Structure formats: C-alpha cells, structure tokens
Amino acid sequence: MAVGAEAIFGNSIVTTKLNSAISWARESSMWPYVFGTACCAIEFMSAASSKFDISRFGAEVVRFSPRQADLMVVAGTISHKQVPVLRKIYNQMTEPKWVISMGACACSGGFYDNYTTLQGIDSIIPVDVYVAGCPPRPEALLDALLQIQKLQKKEESIIKDRVNKNFKGQLDV
Amino acid sequence: MCSCFEKEFKGLYEKDENGIYLIEKTHIKSMIKCLNERDGFHFLADITAIDYLEFTKPTPTRFAVIYILRDKEFKNVITLKSFIGKDEENLHVESICDIFFSANWAEREVWDQYGIKFLNHPNLKRVLNHKEFKGHPLRRDYPIKQRQACTQTDDLMDEMTSVLSKKGYNSHDDLMFLNLGPAHPASHGTIRNFVALDGETIVGAVSEIGYLHRGFEKSCENHTYNQIIPYTDRLNYCSAILNNTAFAHTVECMLNITIPERAQFIRVITGELYRIIDHLVCLAANLVDMGALTNYWYLYNPREVAYDLLSKLTGARLTNTYVRIGGVAHDLYDGFEEDLKSCIKAIEKGMGDTLSLIEHNKIFHDRTQNVGVVSAKKAINSGFTGPNLRASGVAYDLRKTDPYYFYNSLDFDIAIGSVGDVYDRMMVRFEEIRQSISIINQSMKMLPKGDIIVNDKAVALPKKQNVYNNIEGLMNQFKLIVDGVRVPHKEYYGAIEAGNGELGFFIISDGSGTPYKVKVRPPCFPAMSTLPSILEGGMIADSVVTLASLNIVAGELDR
C-alpha cells in the first residue's frame, strides 16, 4: 500500500532520489568527445555508424568541443608530443566527466614500447574504463559505454565533483 | 638510363654491389642537379640516412645519406649514397631544397632522426619529434626506450613570422591566427595546420606533424621481419594489407624469391579490396567535410560488409596481418567468392547512390572545382604520388610503370584528372574504385590452385602437423620464430602502388633475421609538406576539403 505522496496522487508520480533521477537521465544521453588519433578512431567511426549504431545507447551526439562533452573517448596512440594537447582538452571538459581509454595504445602504449609513445594515458589523466584490443571491435566500445552507465548508477552524489582532485599526472607538478 | 650523369661525372662515382651509386658529399648537389635536368630524374622519392655504428661490415664513416630518385617514366630508380663526416662538426651536406620541393621535409626528418645538418636549408627544425626532444632517436646509440616528456606545444610563430614577412606582412595587427588541429574535427587525425587569416582568406599557413609519431622505424630495428608485419598494418590503417604487401614484397625481392602464383593473386585481390576501402573512407570523410553527411553512410556501410569478409578471412577487421614473408597466412575460405560478390555489390550500390547525389550537384561542384589546385609540374616536384598525382594529369601508377605480380596481364585503366583540384582528386578515386572492382573480378577468374606460401624452410613456417610430430619440424619452427627469416646483406628500395600512392620501403639487412634499418616512404608525407603552399590564398573553408582530398593518414605520415 502506498504511503506519502504516492498515496495521494496514485500512479501518476514516482518518488525517487534526485541523484538517481539525474543519473538515470545522464546515462542515456552521454555526449562523447572523441580524442581520436589513430586506428582506433576508425573503429569508433564504425561504432557510430549504422551497423553498430551507438545511438542505441544514447551516445551518438559526438561533440567536437570538449566544453560540450561529458565523455572523453581516447582512441589511439598518444605520443609524448600529443600529451600537452590531451591534458589541455581534458581540463577543458566540465564536471561531471568520464574517460574511456580505447585500445591497447591508450591503455598501456601497446606494442609501441619505444622512445616516443606514452605508456598509458592514465599517467596523465584519470581513466574510468579501459578497452582492450588493437583496435577493439565496436562491440567492445559499446560494452565500455555500458560500463560507464553502470558507474553512473553507483555514483553517490551529483553535487560532488567526481574527478579525484588529488590525481597527479606526469605533467601536474 | 643516366647517360649524361655517367658521362659528366666519370670516375667520380662508384657502383656498389647493390647497384647504389657511391658519391662524394661535395658532388651531391651538382650530381642531383645533372640527373634532374639532363637525365630526366625529376622525381625525388626519398632522402634518408644510415647510421653504420653497429654494422657487421666496416664502412668509411659512421653516417651515410641516401637519395632515391625516379626518372620520367617513373620506372627506373637511381639510389645515390654518400658517406659523410667523420666527426660531429662535419656532419653536414648541402641541401637540395631548391631543386626538389619534396626535399624540404625529407631533410628535416633526417636532421630530426639522425642529426645530420643540411646547409642552406630554409627551415631546418625537427619535424617528427617534439621541440623539447634531445638527441636523435634513430642513431644506433639512442636507447629505444629512452622517453622524453613534452610539456608544451610549439606555437609555430617562428615559422609563421618568416612566412608572413616573405609575403610583406611586417605587422600582424590585421591578421587573425587560427589553429586547425591537432585535435580538430577537420584535421582527420592529428594533423595541425596553423593559419593566418585576413578575413576568411588564408594569407599564411604552416603545418606541423609528428603527433602520431610512434617510432615505427626504431621498432623495426628491434624485431624480426615477420614481427614487423603487424607494425606495417598500422601505418595506413585504412589499407593494412597493402602495407603488408609493400613490406613483404620488398623483403622477398631482397631474398630473391618469387612467391607462388596463388599467393600473388590473393595479394592482388585483397590489396585491391583494400584500395577500394581506402578510397571509400577518404571520399566519405571528404564529403562530410563539406556537409554531405548522407553520402557518408552510403560509402561507409559497404565498408562494414568488406570488414565482415576480412574478419572471416584474416581474423581481424582493420589490422589484418594477413601477409607473411613468402606468401600469405591462410588460404581463401569456402564461400569467399560469394561473400566477395555481395561485398562488391554493396560497394557498387553505395558508390552509385553517392554519385547520383553529387555528380550533377551544383553545391558539390562549387565547393570542389578549382579549389586546392596543384599543377602537374608542382605535383611531381613535390613528390606527389597515387591518386593525388594522377588528378594533376600525370599517369603514374606503379601497377603500370613497373608491374609486379600479375598486373601486366590484368586489363585496367589509369584514371587521370585534368586540373588537379579537389574535384579531380575525388573523381579519380571514384574511377579507381571501378577499376579495382574490375581487377578483382578478373583475378578471381584467373586465380590458380596451389600453394599460398613458398616451399622454403628458411622462409616459411612448417606445417603444424610437422611441428607437433617430428623434431625437424619443431626445430624449423623454433629457429624461424626466434631468429627470424635471414635476409642476406643488402640495401634495397622496393615500392608498390598503395591506396595513397607509392609506398616504398628502403631496407638494409646485415644477414641476420632483424633488419638493420627500415625506412618507409609514406605517400602522404610529401603531400602534407606541400599543403601549406596549396592553402595560401584560398578560403578557410576550402582548406578543410583540400586537406581531406589529399587523404593524409596520420599513421603513415608520422610513422
């Protein structure tokens, strides 16, 4: 038997927590910013196009400005020359923001263990979900998106910043 | 082939066992000038250097510079080599930028990677590595894992100021400066164009590359020949098998082996399929850049059909690693022909739908015709190859001028343009897709039965049955995996026609299973170096379609 507001208004309203309601709205309307540098960016294109259709999960509004996006997909190798650019763009994104590290190179440098390649973007910016593969299949990226949605369900508060302010990357001295 | 050169410089050169002309460093410029002006070697394929520090044979000095040129028919290649400088102070040669425009960035790369100076070079600064980088990574004594952090991006104002002052702009007050890239939707990857605008007109442009430099060449020096094939996949990631083939073909020429006919045809079929995919991606992206998104789906979706076929054949969608030294990894599967047919059908449909939308579309014509024009002379001097060069009206295609595999028995045309603008570059690609479809259809009819890899224990891995059941096979497998395919002492330049043009590999082997040096000649590197001069004087909106029409792929550009 319903109590409180539901008892008065019947089935016409649902009571919930503001956190859950906003997270529920967010999870199906992620706006990705694709930091695509290499082969993985081509697979992102596949994920976004008709066959795999990322819009089934509400993330088809690809933004080209980090200021309008809340999900950064780092797709491809990050060289040391690229590092300041990556960091700057990440910092330009507003809270709340999530990061997917797509592919072996972004996660760990992949098989480019050499003088020019950054060995994993998590030494520069915090990462939420890692996707394995070289490059990962589009389904793997979609799976990562679902993982992000799961994270959003777990989020404690929508008021608090979600990024750990104590995170220190290689360039943050 | 080079009679004037041989007459004029008689006694001043020596031909080594690889057919490379050894010359004195003081003669480099005059010899190249003679070859260019009198013998018709009007195309500079590449410049590179070699560090002989750890080479197994003694050499006069540690460093040598290499120049690779092609003649008027684009058939004959001449390679010049000059040993230079016993010590660091004398490590310099005369620049040849005033003869070949394409030498500009090529020389900058040699300076960046090897620390060899080019005297009288207009702008000798690093091109692939960042500006805070110390040392020269392709020197043999530079440790492969010595990473150097980059804290700031180059503002490029030094280059821009000199570009603008040459054009008479001493004050920058009326100009607006704009970065297109390295993280910009119009940059197609990681390319950076820095432009100075007067209104919407570009008065000065500077390009910066190297944001995707991932040390391909250094990695090659640390892997066996077959281990390098996965690395080649990721050069031009839109056409992996063509890169595989270019590399394997060069190594096979060094080994002096001919691969079985079936393997040759399989390489032709998969290679042409990849040429189509490469062109589809380029065209789709180019059309998106001018706002024609519908065409993107028409052109992109057939690619998914092709990727399904390639996953069935090779196990991967994008990075196939299908080719092996001596042949290919697996034979075609049952039902390949039907899959290929439906794939081609999808491609033809996508192309037809797109063309029906754009072929007689005034907006498309206005956006592309007479935009980003490159004359034939400039294209050759700048080192353009592939569809970009053919759009300027030069019928150079390695499949015709220097046929490999069975291209001389296949019936196909070279598509050429007449103006060299964005329109021509796009339409040449559309026509090449048609020609490639025809090549695939002919090859499927001619496809012989037989082996798919050479029957040579020193090159090809033994059958798994032998590896598991007898010691000889096991040892064979072990030796080939651990030591790699041993390639005899040789310095060789080999090239094939890849999706973007002449994709060449200059390989030096020291008799072991690991190459001593690998230098790639990526077809879009010279095109990219020419881009600023094409953009200047044009509109900012045109710069986006011009860049896209050159099909710059960062993976092979920056390596």
Helix and strand sequence of chain A: HHEHEHEHEH
Largest sheet of chain B: 5 strands, mixed
In whole angstroms, the N-to-C terminal distance of chain B is 33 Å
- Largest two-chain interface: A-B, 39 and 48 residues
Summing up helix and strand content along with how strands pair, one would put the structural category of chain A as alpha/beta
**Overall number of structural domains of chain B:** 3
Number of domains of chain A: 1
What is the helix fraction of residues of chain B, given as a range?
40-55%
Count of runs of 4 or more consecutive helical residues of chain B: 20
Radius of gyration of chain B: 24 Å
Described by its quaternary structure, the protein is heterodimer
CATH topology of chain A: Rossmann fold
Helix content of chain A: 25-40%
CATH architecture of the largest domain in chain B: Orthogonal Bundle
CATH architecture of chain A: 3-Layer(aba) Sandwich
Query: What's the total number of strands of chain A?
Result: 4
Question: What's the CATH H-level homologous superfamily of the largest domain in chain B?
Answer: Cytochrome-c3 Hydrogenase, chain B
Shape of chain A: globular
CATH topology of the largest domain in chain B: Cytochrome-c3 Hydrogenase, chain B
Low-confidence stretches of chain A: none
What can you tell me about this protein's structure?
The complex is a heterodimer of chains A (173) and B (559). Chain A has six helices and four strands. Chain A has helices spanning 5-9, 18-27, 39-48, 83-92, 104-108, 138-154; strands spanning 32-36, 71-75, 98-102, 129-131. Chain A has a four-stranded parallel sheet with strand order 1-2-3-4. Chain A is globular, with a radius of gyration of 18 Å. Chain B contains 20 helices and 15 strands. Chain B has a five-stranded mixed sheet with strand order 1-2-5-4-3, covered by helices on one side. A three-stranded antiparallel sheet of chain B has the order 8-9-10. In chain B, a hairpin with a 5-residue loop joins strand 14 (501-509) and strand 15. Chains A and B meet through helix 3 and helix 4 of A and helix 9 and helix 20 of B.
